Amino acid sequence: MLELIIKNGTVDGQSSLVDIACKDGKIVEISPAIKADAVTIIDAEGQLVTPPFVDSHFHMDATLSMGMPRLNQSGTLLEGIKIWGELKPDLTPEGIKERAIKLITWAIAKGNLAIRSHVDTTDPSLMAVDVLLEVREEMKEFIDIQLVAFPQDGVLRCKDGLALMRRALDKGVDVVGGIPHFERTMDEGHKSIEILCEMAVERGLMVDMHCDESDDPHSRHIETLTYHTQRLGLQGRIAGSHLTSMHSMDNYYVSKLLPLMAEAQMNCVCNPLVNMNLQGRHDTYPKRRGLMRVPELMAQGINVSLGHDDVMDPWYPMGTHDMLEVAHMGAHALHMTGVAQQEILFDAVTTHGAKTLNIEGYGLDIGCNADMVVLQAMSKTEAMRVHPTRLYVIRRGKIISQTPKVVANVTLGDDVHNVDFM
Ligand SMILES: [Zn+2]
């Protein structure tokens, strides 16, 4: 018998409503009217069924720590890093784990079933690494967590940074991270990229670097990252996160840079909520937005996905881990409110994210993992506009989160209107 049938779903690329049948954790049939028995049957009533949301950039070791030990008064990246440094000696494994699991329940309720989380490797105890490896294992039935070894204080600038990075990777962290713009000099930044990319080759791992997260137009580490990607044959396996300096770069230089990035099949991860919060903080007026050039990158055929980056931590005091909120901010901050552009931004928090993370079995096709979300919205653009209720979140053919449909009753004299914003 089938595990699950979702009836009457709207699915991207299908012209009429379809049923989706799942067995042994996989999608086994997608067709207009499946006549079979199943343990669970959901009627989607014409609403959008989508593969799960993917957060391609997050910090699970810091999440929900806002105010510990103090609030970020300047709102800058650098004060955030300073506060995190003050908090590190007081972190406990129990505290990190409790906050991470709370965040994961939020993520699942919002339909995010894959998160790439950076984890700081510059704490000599590697406590957060151990805790998040444990969380990754304990939660794997419910969510894919991919960990990036992230040398927050600089892999060369921090004492024993390289040795700690190696130890974290030995323990089983999935991806090599970096932060070239935070090393002591531009040259050290370039050197860190070379060393870390070679480390990834030796170990057969992907790379995802915090790269050029500043408003300095001369921060051009992405060029070096692109060069080593090409040199080492790492095409498609490297991600440049943030790339905010690109906003302020010279236009001629960018016209040379983007085709090189396309050639290297660079994945780019933009973090609209947090970039809008942290960038431009040193400006008076006008204040720069400080996001990478997403429409131009996409026009070159470069894969761009979006990340939440932070939820209630030293860098961002808001958020519920709703990836549609991220895409919504992106639509505004990037001037991507056109209908087709909104649809692409929806993809940037679903399929493009899966591509950045190299997730196997992702998608709404026969043979893919039966991981899906039924939204209280009929289309991607409606989802972008209303940030709808995630009616059902399905993992490997089982419902793991359910939220009742939200409808308001507005009483105008004798008339009662049911309002669902559609
Ligand atoms: Zn980050």
SSE layout:
Elements lengths: L1 E8 L8 E6 L2 E6 L6 E6 L5 E2 L2 E7 L17 H11 L5 H17 L2 E9 L6 H12 L5 E7 L10 H10 L4 E2 L9 H18 L2 E6 L9 H11 L6 E5 L8 H13 L3 E4 L1 H7 L15 H6 L3 E4 L16 H11 L5 H10 L2 H7 L14 E4 L4 H7 L3 E6 L2 E5 L5 E5 L2 E5 L3
Parallel strand pairs: 1-4, 6-7, 7-8, 8-9, 9-10, 10-11, 11-12, 12-13
Antiparallel strand pairs: 1-2, 2-3, 5-14, 14-15, 15-16, 17-18
Helix pairs in contact: 2-3, 5-6, 6-7, 10-11, 11-13
The site of zinc ion (ZN) has 5 residues, from strand 6.
Structure notes:
- By secondary structure, this protein is α/β, with parallel strands linked by helices.
- The protein has 2 domains: 96 residues, Urease, subunit C, domain 1 (Roll), CATH 2.30.40.10; 305 residues, TIM Barrel (Alpha-Beta Barrel), CATH 3.20.20.
- 33% of the residues lie in helices and 23% in strands.
- The protein has 13 helices and 18 strands.
- Strands 6-7-8-9-10-11-12-13 form an 8-stranded parallel sheet, sandwiched between helices. Strands 3-2-1-4 form a 4-stranded mixed sheet, with no helix packed on it. The chain has a 4-stranded antiparallel sheet with strand order 5-14-15-16, with no helix packed on it.
- The longest helix is centred in the middle third of the chain and has 18 residues.
- 51% of the residues are buried.
- The mean pLDDT is 97.
- It binds zinc ion (ZN).
